[in-house]
Amino acid sequence: VAGAGGGGCPAGGNDFQWCFSQVKGAIDEDVAEADIISTVEFNYSGDLLATGDKGGRVVIFQREQENKSRPHSRGEYNVYSTFQSHEPEFDYLKSLEIEEKINKIRWLPQQNAAHFLLSTNDKTIKLWKISERDKRAEGYNLKDEDGRLRDPFRVTALRVPILKPMDLMVEASPRRIFANAHTYHINSISVNSDHETYLSADDLRINLWHLEITDRSFNIVDIKPANMEELTEVITAAEFHPHQCNVLVYSSSKGTVRLCDMRSSALCDRHSKFFEEPEDPSSRSFFSEIISSISDVKFSHSGRYMMTRDYLSVKVWDLNMESRPVETHQVHEYLRSKLCSLYENDCIFDKFECCWNGSDSAIMTGSYNNFFRMFDRNARRDVTLEASRENSKPRASLKPRKVCTGGKRKKDEISVDSLDFNKKILHTAWHPLENIIAVAATNNLYIFQDKIN
User: Which one, of 242, 220, 253, 353, lies nearest residue 297 by Cα?
Assistant: First the structure.
């Protein structure tokens, strides 16, 4: 793992003056498929950062505490625990291989010294406990020091075992396994604000689980038609409201979002609100339906807004207004003329995620060529930044990038024809309290920050 120190940067989160902090991952040109990062998630405090990869592994990074001898080390994230969450499986009934790839990770709010997270592949969700051990018991009566059982007849005196300090050990243990509830591939998990239940969504159904009960779940949304030939849309993402435990939203491949209230009925087939932007007939093309498919939906921390990401844009919706979004931010409009070649190389089906900053004043999402975009909602400004090792000196400022769409190219601009579509940033995360961001670029995890942390 390569890492570089973090530290002071130019001022101002809203000015989008970010600087490099760290990069984790191998520098090899040939990237193993199993090492490609498939999800990134900060915990509620932001002190832990989890990544999942296509090889079924979960790597957790922990933020370093303040160190007087190294004043800039506070922002550094170092490996805390690595464990194999999922293994490849084979469904013998359907003759299908089940990939080990981690689709989503969601942290549970911390209740005690241990941390808990949910991780899922296509079919199985697991609840993991991550705990520390820095003491061990010694002086057992019925066991030798090497763990072998002693003959009870040889025990002549009663000893009281004592705890002795040992090197810190971080253990990850699976506490619950939630399986056999999804016919199709799981695309989302979301922990409810009651901290007792969570949802899991696949292409056609959403299930509600209790964190303590593994052998049954309740189906709350089912859009599967009686005749599969009549199937017109699939569920692409789902999330619980951050404060109202009865409210959830799910997005579809048709570019619509439905808000459901579990108080109205146990089966939420009839939505309470339906968010859809009318399509402009003049801009309709062969690709309209594909690029309108929503790849991610996220509630704001306040719970007042939600954000949806489609192929070319990010939209912010007010939950009180269903007819149209209150904001539309173009992510890479210059690709509209390239949709034909993006369709041929399958990039048009890429699923980009999006995230809010802690105060809901800015949003971030990924693009191609290892570019990622930030939008300041208050100042109505945006910037394109690049996750690259070429600019990976500690505290090096990130220079805004510009894409030239035609005509004469300026010195700092990059031509739209020279963008690398194999380098894509699908997964990003924003620290819940500070301006620290994590950006997954293939097998590398970049961490940027905007001020001395």
Answer: 353
User: pLDDT tens digits for 131-176?
Assistant: 988 888 888 888 887 778 888 888 888 888 888 888 888 999 999 9
Going 173 to 178 to 184 to 186, the CA torsion angle's sign is: negative
Of 45-49, 91-95, 313-317, which range is least confident?
91-95
**Averaged confidence pLDDT in the chain:** 90
- Main-chain phi, psi angles of 161, to 5 degrees: -60, 150
| Residues in the chain, overall count | 453
CA dist list (Å): 14 to 216, 263, 406:
46, 39, 30
The pTM score is 0.88
Tokens representing 63 are 């933020």
By the 8 A CB rule, do 373 and 364 touch? yes
